[in-house]
Amino acid sequence: METRPDRIILLRVPLDIVSPEELPDIITNLVPNDKDPYESQEKRNIVLLSLWDLLKARRNSEYRDYLYNAVLVIPISKSLVTGAKFLTGKKLYRYMPFKFVISLLSILEKREYPLFLRGGKSQILKKAEKNIRATFPGLKIVGRCEGKIRKQEEAAVIEAIRKSSPSILLAGRGVRGKELWIARNSNRLNSGFRLWCSDLFDVFAEKKHRPKDAVFERGLEGIGYCFRSPLKFFRVFPFIYYNLLLLINKISKR
Predict the structure, then answer these.
(1) Tens digits of per-residue pLDDT, 175-223?
(2) What global pTM score does this model have?
(3) Cβ(200)–Cβ(51) under 8 Å?
(4) What is the rounded end-to-end Cα distance, in angstroms, of the chain?
């Protein structure tokens, strides 16, 4: 029987409680059993959830269903951790997206599992693949495809992913539909892990830098994003809305 993390519901959105110490065992237990037919296993979508994703899930039923059907929903925003503590009393564990992927690949490398890369521009994807091979020589990269392709080519790419049977599919920027591409094609892909992260291949290709650990721990990484894209300063309004929702829900439960 598979070990599953505890799951809470925060403002109608699921979040999983996964400590760094538990992560290796949870991932290992979720990998398809070698004794069972691989294609018989359930879909294993992993979602890295930000505060903005939570608010999106509240108004978008398709995205919310995607979260409820995911095998892991991992918080990446400090506001989700503090909000869960305030509303439910539960302690969540927050992960930096890139470091979570590094941990995930390190766990899978020990059993030499296959990997498929989907997303990014051609040159960035090639550089990312090269660096992944150097960092995780035990992983078998069984295919790659850049993000932006013609719509009529989509079916062939999905078939290539299915036939190559990767234990994990990493998807990133440029894929039509973003993470909902995984949700919409879930039944046409194979049964391995699937994870979407927008800047993943840019970071692997050393085109973008991840936030410093100290900045991330304080929950201040969003300030840097705002200076790079000033329109993101307007996110203060949904942040205020989120805190009002927490307060209203807290009062209503008394």
Answers:
(1) 999 999 999 998 888 878 999 998 899 999 988 877 777 777 877 666 6
(2) 0.88
(3) no
(4) 38
52: CATH: 3.40.50
Range of the domain at 28: 6-204
Does a structural domain hold residue 150? yes
- In the chain, the number of structural domains is 1
Please name the helix (run of DSSP H) or strand (run of DSSP E) that holds residue 64, with its range, or none: helix 61-68
Query: Is residue 26 in some structural domain?
Result: yes
Phi, psi (deg, nearest 5) at residue 146: -65, 165
CB 143 within 8 A of CB 160: yes
Beta bridge partners of 13: 10
Query: Tens digits of per-residue pLDDT, 107-153?
Result: 999 888 999 999 999 999 999 999 999 999 999 999 999 988 998 99
Closest CA to 159 of 118, 109, 213, 220: 118
- Report the number of secondary-structure helices (H) and strands (E) in the chain: 12, 8
